[in-house]
Write a structure and sequence with these properties.
about 10% strand, 3 domains, 5-stranded mixed sheet, 7 strands
Length: about 325
């Protein structure tokens, strides 16, 4: 424990260090620059007015004709415009710098999240493989381990596919709109539910589906699978295990409406505006250590947009659940 004397000696240095960090912070620098520009503008106006009066008095003393007053006003306006342009350029530079900094921060978070998402199934696969190598396991246990291996492999495949598809959608090289297949929407949702069972083994007890069992759709089966799968996984991860998850579907004259509703943690009004952005993860996901990469909802929005559809979310706030709606043109 440092002595009181050493603490007193280190205090000025700590204060100086904190002050330096505060003054060199981008927001502090930006505010100081704006203060400087405003001060320069005020000084410019004061200087111009004083000089204009001096020039006028000097002109009268020399017996010359009066200077055109519009010339002075024009000069003042030009000076103010130039200073305003400098201020505007500074503001734009600050905004773009903050956006770039935020993007870099989100990319670092994404890399960390992907690393964690890869590490868990890989560790499970390694342990299962080492256990199976012993060759002395009873058949029921061996089958159970093989099932776990298959689940982890499927999880890895889905993660890699989403990253690759997200990158291809971002570059505009993935065509989903013209990929028309005829498939049953009810069967597809049931299949998606089975694939997401690794998140909750008791999903059957909390899953409710309101969909016509004979609803046939012509469109991209892959697109519907990605969109519904991502929304269902989020509903599972962001809601308590005993809460109900509902999927509603309805067919209208020119569109298909799909709603995924949960009674979980909800979404704050602030996050509602950002949840579909690439790499964005809510503060709730961070505080509760919920697994994710920040590309799922971005992938949903990009996919629905390619299909000329709309996607939006509604929530009454934190702790009140949320509902995601998808409207995709039919035919």
């Amino acid at each position: 424990m440092p002595s009181p004397r050493k603490a007193k000696e280190s205090f000025p240095w700590q204060w100086a260090s904190n002050s330096f960090k505060f003054l060199t912070h981008p927001i502090s620098v930006f505010v100081l620059m704006q203060i400087v520009w405003v001060a320069l503008t005020i000084l410019w106006v004061i200087w111009f007015i004083s000089q204009n009066e001096v020039i006028g008095e000097l002109t009268k003393a020399m017996g010359a004709r009066d200077i055109d007053p519009t010339l002075g006003i024009f000069t003042l306006i030009i000076g103010c415009i130039l200073l305003a342009i400098i201020m505007l350029g500074t503001i734009l530079l600050f905004v773009f710098t903050q956006k770039q900094t935020s993007l870099v921060r989100q990319q670092k978070t994404f890399v960390s999240s992907v690393t964690h998402e890869l590490r868990s199934p890989l560790a499970s696969l390694q342990l299962s493989f080492e256990t199976l190598q012993s060759g002395q396991l009873p058949e029921p246990i061996a089958k159970k381990l093989m099932g776990m291996v298959q689940t982890d492999i499927d999880r890895l495949v889905r993660l890699v596919d989403r990253i690759l598809i997200s990158a291809s959608l971002d570059r505009g090289i993935h065509d989903l709109k013209n990929n028309n297949e005829c498939f049953n929407l009810y069967d597809l949702i049931i299949e998606i539910k089975e694939h997401t069972r690794f998140l909750d083994v008791e999903l059957d007890q909390r899953f409710e589906l309101d969909c016509d069992q004979n609803m046939e759709i012509v469109g991209s089966r892959l697109a519907y699978s990605m969109v519904i799968g991502n929304l269902l996984e989020n509903a599972i991860k962001y809601s308590p295990k005993e809460s109900i998850i509902k999927v509603h579907t309805s067919s209208h004259k020119n569109s298909i409406l799909i709603a995924v509703e949960d009674h979980g943690y909800g979404i704050s009004r602030k996050d509602l505006k950002k949840i579909f952005k690439l790499f964005h993860r809510s503060s709730l996901a961070t505080s509760k250590a919920i697994h994710g990469t920040g590309i799922g909802l971005y992938l949903v929005k990009s996919t629905v947009k390619l299909l000329d559809g709309k996607v939006w979310a509604e929530s009454q706030g934190t702790g009140r659940g949320s509902t995601f709606f998808i409207s995709i043109p039919s035919g």
